[in-house]
Amino acid sequence: MIKRSDFPKDFLFGTATAAYQIEGAAKEDGKGPSIWDVFSHTPGKTFNGDTGDIACDHYHRFKEDVAIMKEIGLNAYRFSISWPRVMQDGKNINQKGIDFYNRLVDELLENDIIPFITLYHWDLPYALYEKGGWLNDDIAMYFRAYATLMFNELGDRVKHWITLNEPWCSSFLGYFTGEHAPGHQNLQEALIAAHNLLRSHGHAVQAFREEVRDGKIGLTNVVTKVEPGDSRPESFFVASLVDKVINAWFHDPVIFGKYPEEAVKNYVEMGLNVPDNDFDIISTPIDFFGVNYYTRTLVVFDETNPMKFSYVSGDLPKTEMGWEIYPQGLFDMLIYLKERYRLPLYITENGMAGPDKVENGKVIDDYRIEYLEKHFEKALEAINAGVNLKGYFIWSLLDNFEWAYGYSKRFGIVYVDYNTQKRILKKSAQWLKEFLRS
Ligand SMILES: OC[C@@H]1[C@@H](O)[C@H](O)[C@@H](O)c2[nH]c(CCc3ccccc3)c[n+]21
């Protein structure tokens, strides 16, 4: 049984959330609409028509939520800023929105919790989407202005920043599969959006070096252990391509100043244009990578698909998301990232959706305790194998708005009764509290 004391003394244990998933107050105090406000209000886009209008009402209940983190004994908290809350049209400053984040940061610091801020966790101001959003090259300048504003407002107290959360999701789910806002289905657009996300990242890093000299800034990507779902050589080939798109497309340009060639070649052969400008800006040096790990991804050759592959479901035990529980993949991906990029790492998301039910006022989520324990063990194994892993943020503190799945998936270590907004610490939160004292 691993103990907290097995980890380095200065290792951070925290939880992670995102603005649109927990804040609510979707139109309060001058907040403008994001693409997720519009997408979730579009019939058919989210489970049950769920929206982030109220969510966990964190905008009003943040002190209670910080107190819960303190009670558990967490020493860090990763959250995102809602861009349209602080610049409702992507340009004009909304002081009331900024004041909320000032109050939140002060509350965290008063409780000895280190804030990690994600500047963009998918809630683009709708006004900027109407100007082309991530397809408009000018977006990088808007993002730089937004980032500069937040560095100036909070950079005196917040020393850990993440520019983007999972640009792969923003671009490929938002512009190719259409599962996420803004719901486009165009692979060429996805490549353009991906490139403008990376350009925006680079501009924000440049601004950071000017505004917050003593801070650390990084980029959070999803990583997943991609494996062939059968033994055909073609499946190994497509698995290698998918691996490069998910696990290298948004890392390589930031470190090497170029996209992975095999994947570029594949897109060019499909007749697509792969943007190739501004790699000098994109590769402005960063201080760490954030790693969002949940599961592995199995792919097989499938010529009926224009991409020549399809995802298949493996036979390991799965979470409520249908994702296999595969802790070994966390170790493998941490080693991969260390050996390819040689940067400090934070696990900025890891956790599971479970069949959480309240019985006699309690939520007995032993499955989540086992999931976390097994992934903690693999993280420790990676540290002992020489990975410079500096922290671990559990997804998530609270049950929250799970994008297209609405409120049907519960990832929190704290249960949220959405009818009453009552918070109930699950057994996993109690287990974590003990672990952090072990
Ligand atoms: O689905 C749980 C969380 C979301 O609530 C977060 O907002 C988002 O950052 C986030 N990303 C992932 C990874 C999704 C994924 C898994 C496997 C392969 C590709 C993407 C899981 N999650």
TrEMBL record:
PROSITE patterns: GLYCOSYL_HYDROL_F1_1 (PS00572), GLYCOSYL_HYDROL_F1_2 (PS00653). GO terms for cellular component: cytosol. It catalyses: Hydrolysis of terminal, non-reducing beta-D-glucosyl residues with release of beta-D-glucose. One of its GO terms (biological process) is cellulose catabolic process. Substrate binds at Q21, H121, N165, Y294, W395, E402, W403. The active site is at E166 (proton donor), E349 (nucleophile). It holds the Pfam family Glyco_hydro_1. GO terms for molecular function: beta-glucosidase activity. Keywords: Carbohydrate metabolism, Cellulose degradation, Glycosidase, Hydrolase, Polysaccharide degradation. Its EC number is 3.2.1.21. Pathway: Glycan metabolism; cellulose degradation. PANTHER family: GLYCOSYL HYDROLASE, LP05116P. Belongs to the glycosyl hydrolase 1 family. This is Beta-glucosidase. It comes from Fervidobacterium nodosum (strain ATCC 35602 / DSM 5306 / Rt17-B1). The lineage of its organism: Bacteria, Thermotogati, Thermotogota, Thermotogae, Thermotogales.
